[in-house]
Amino acid sequence: MKLLSLRGGSRLVCTRPLRVPQLEELYISGCSIIWDHLQNLRVLSVCDSNSPNLAQLVPILQSSPRLERLVLRDINAASGGTEVSLNPICLPQLSTINLSRMSLEFASGLLERLFTSAAFRLSSIYWPRSKWSSSLDFFHQAGRSCALQGPEEQIIDPGLSLIDNYWCFETAPDRYLHTSSLDDNQPIMGLAEAARMFFATSKGLPFTARSHRFRLELKSRLHLADSLEIVHENFPETVELDVSCEKGLKGLSVLAEPKVEEGNPVWLLPKLAELTLDTESDAFDYGNIIAMVIKRTQAATSSPLALSPITFLTLGRGRVRSKHLGRLKTAGIKYERDGVTVVA
Q1: pLDDT tens-digit profile of 75-94?
Q2: Given 9, 59, 153, 235, which is the most exposed site by the fewest CB atoms within 10 A?
Q3: Helices 287-302 and 322-330, interaxial angle, to 10°?
Q4: Which residues contact 173 (CB under 8 A, 6 or more apart)?
Q5: Distances (CA, A) of 190 to 69, 82, 197, 228
Q6: Is the dihedral of CA 205, 208, 213, 217 positive or negative?
Q7: Exposed/middle/buried for 177, CB within 10 Å: 0-12, 13-18, 19+?
């Protein structure tokens, strides 16, 4: 037998050990089993179950070196306390891990022990946000799981999305952490700390290649200035920045307002040269944004070693006055109209 699917109510319990040495795919939903080593397992999916706990799961995974895909969802088991093995879980063929709705202790303990090879590509972790102060270790471990694996890899298109109750931290198209919540009042400080922890860990390897492009997709302008700080802290080499913000782009003003440290100006994203903007409001006026871009570009003229000029601006939905486009041209800044309406 190579594939086994067990489905039942939450009270269904298998009382004999599962001993199917040739099993390659195991799908368990709504039931509990007595585990045995499954050395040929390639796919393991456990959903809506009271087992395994972490102490049981660690040796199961350690004895399944061929595992390629791991899905754990709605696991209501305890961690296993001091019985949990501290030995690493080495899964050289693992390409996908999908975790959702389990205790922070369980998830962090699993990710802390998990070691993969360069074959690891997809780390999809859907997480219900709650007490941020007690979950930072989880974001640290999630970032490590999404980290690049060797010098041959590059960070491609990292991004941060904050949309309603859905947040996404992404180091590459195939390495990301998704979080969701039913709470509309999650504090921005919690988000900032979680994002910093995730990105700092996922990008912290010494051989990690630099990224020159970053994407921000935001629901509220209240997050924009904070998000730019996060990008600057973790991706200061960003040259191209894409920003989509539903309720306006006023937070972008921080790009032309350097902080002063020890008497010297410190600019956010000092290498930024290309800026792509979009808003869901056709009535948004880009006049102040254009003034900010020109101000920053003029500052770069007097401080070329500290700041790069913005040389290309793409304008999405909204409106712009023709005289403002003329000012861009006068300042030597190229632009592209991508959905923006030009008014007199």
Answers
A1: 877 655 556 777 888 888 88
A2: 9
A3: 10
A4: 156, 157
A5: 31, 30, 11, 16
A6: negative
A7: buried
Higher pLDDT, 316 or 110: 316
pLDDT at 288 over 90: yes
Residue 243 clears pLDDT 90, i.e. is over it: yes
Q: Going along the chain, which residue ranges are E strands?
A: 3-17, 25-34, 43-49, 69-75, 89-91, 96-100, 114-116, 122-128, 159-163, 166-172, 175-180, 213-218, 240-245, 259-261, 264-266, 274-278, 312-315, 318-321, 334-337, 340-343
Q: Is the pTM of this model over 0.90?
A: no
Q: Distances from the Cα of 319 to the Cαs of 202, 286, 297, 322, 325, in angstroms?
A: 38, 6, 22, 10, 11
Query: CA-to-CA distance for 194 and 318, rounded, in angstroms?
Result: 32
Contact indicator for 308, 286 with CB cutoff of 8 Å: no
